[in-house]
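Re-run requested by the PI after the first attempt was lost when the workstation crashed. Everything re-entered from the original request form. Ligand of interest: iron/sulfur cluster.
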Amino acid sequence: MPQVGWLTSSRTKVPFDEALAAAEADGEWEGMPFEVLSGIRKQVTADRPDAISVTQTLSCPRKVFLQGTEDYYVSPMDNFATFRGTIVHTMLEDNKTDDGVTEERFTRDHRGIIISGSPDSVRSIDRGRRGDRFLIRDWKSAKALPKYDNAYTNHQQQVNLYRWLLHLDPERTDLEVVYVSMEGVRILRLKPSQVWSDAEVEAFLDRRLMPLQAQRDAGRPVAYYSVEEGDLWQCDYCPVQAICYRKAALEIRDGLLAEPDKVQRVVPRARKKK
Ligand code: SF4
């Protein structure tokens, strides 16, 4: 199950329909206008492809599983970054160029697992002496523009995966991330050292895709203590953190009995917020 409603400021769980009815009648609910709440609900309940997506390979696999199988609630403000992204994508859809593809979904097989992704835009551009080149762009809404000349690491990974998904030649493809904030817009092109070969993409997929598929097959999420250290920064922003930590306590107990060497991590008290 996906998100099914919102939390009030006093942490009461309210189903979407109830909150939207109140917002429509009163003009707002929990300080949010009906239009914003309705846009958020459309976004968070939109149909998702059955295949494993590029963005899922960049996320904590346990979060991917729990978001797909558990009912959960978050505050409307916790959804707001997602809604901000929707605004940017609506602008993109309304103003696309005639010579490329925008937000089209592509799939590719990796070791028998289908992976799908939908780059924001793909075009072929005449770069003069550099010849015709493909340009893949992904757009990101942000509170503030990046201060440095490098796209964030997970955004670099995302556009590299899109390049691979489309079977494009890394030598003939430019990869860019466009950041949009209230301050302005910043285009960051990946440097040659940041562009992955097919072998590098596939090594990444071997590491990231297999746990996603394994937990689908097993019908349970990867154990909390098996989540990669590099994914734990997501915990503070995770919409299923409370569910994850509740289940983790039992997994740790069972893991200590069955495979004590692997249980190297317990649920951190400081990260508990819901
Ligand atoms: S709380 Fe952290 S480990 Fe648990 S599902 Fe969320 S991101 Fe993953």
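Saved to the shared folder this time. Residues 60, 62-63, 66, 224, 227, 232, 234-235, 238, 240-241, 244 surround iron/sulfur cluster (CB under 6 Å).
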